[in-house]
Design brief:
This protein has 5 helices and 12 strands. It is an alpha/beta fold and 225 residues long. Strands 4-5-3-2-1-11-12 form a 7-stranded mixed beta sheet, with no helix packed on it. A 5-stranded mixed beta sheet has the order 6-7-8-10-9, with no helix packed on it. Helix 1 runs parallel beside helix 2. The protein is globular and about 55 Å long. The mean pLDDT is 85.
């Protein structure tokens, strides 16, 4: 297999165990799309709430285990408890805080994105407590508070602007993250006229979006079963 033929699938913010997680859609995606490497870009399991796992959760985890593919797990803030696994391979899954690789003469870097947060959202114990309340409200009333919170946070500008994040990662040609639940792509030329790309994977709570890297290109796509 040549480098160009190697296919990478990137998904983030699945929030398995949360009320609004689109587990069935993700299972359909993984079962139908062709790829050689699966990159889970953080907040895959929603440990900081009170997760409720279903039969679909079990099918999804079994499917990932049976893939026979390389699986990379980039640790996010909702699954930060897996931090002790960073740098290790457990049950065939490699756990990392940051994943980098070279592809089509470009340097790729993938992180979850919570590293760039500021303010109260960095208070871990408080956010755990808040997440439990959020989990109860979503299950009791059917609300999608995760989406509301992201929109409110962006209005309040609690997350550093994209350009600040890119400035801290300028040595990467392609920078991929999740965390904000907002799928988006920014492409530009830097001062040396070198092509740069920023991609946010989106989420599997509202958008059902993913990134596919193949044929020397990167695409952000929405899953439509």
């Amino acid at each position: 297999m040549t480098e160009k033929d190697y296919k990478r699938l990137v998904v983030s913010d699945i929030h398995l165990g949360s009320f609004n997680s689109k587990e069935e859609s993700l299972l359909n995606l993984i079962s139908t799309i062709e790829f050689d490497e699966l990159i889970l870009a953080g907040d895959i399991i929603d440990f900081i709430r009170v997760p409720t796992f279903t039969k679909t959760t079990a099918k999804l985890l079994e499917k990932i285990n049976q893939l026979g593919k390389r699986v990379i797990y980039v640790i996010g803030n909702h699954d930060i408890g897996l931090g002790e696994f960073a740098g290790r391979t457990v049950a065939g899954i490699k756990f990392v805080h940051k994943y980098e690789f070279e592809y089509a003469n470009r340097k790729y870097r993938i992180v979850h994105g919570h590293q760039f947060e500021t303010g109260v959202v960095t208070w871990r114990v408080f956010m755990n407590f808040l997440s439990i309340i959020q989990d109860w409200a979503e299950r009791a009333f059917g609300w999608n508070l995760a989406t509301w919170y992201v929109n409110w946070k962006l209005r309040k500008r609690k997350l550093k602007r994209i350009w600040d994040i890119l400035k801290w990662n300028e040595e990467a040609d392609v920078f991929i993250m999740g965390h904000t639940h907002i799928p988006e792509v920014v492409i530009w030329l830097d001062e040396n006229e070198k092509l740069k790309t920023y991609v946010n994977c989106g989420d599997w709570v509202e958008h059902s979006t993913y990134v596919i890297i193949k044929d020397g290109q990167l695409r952000l796509k929405k899953f439509d079963k």
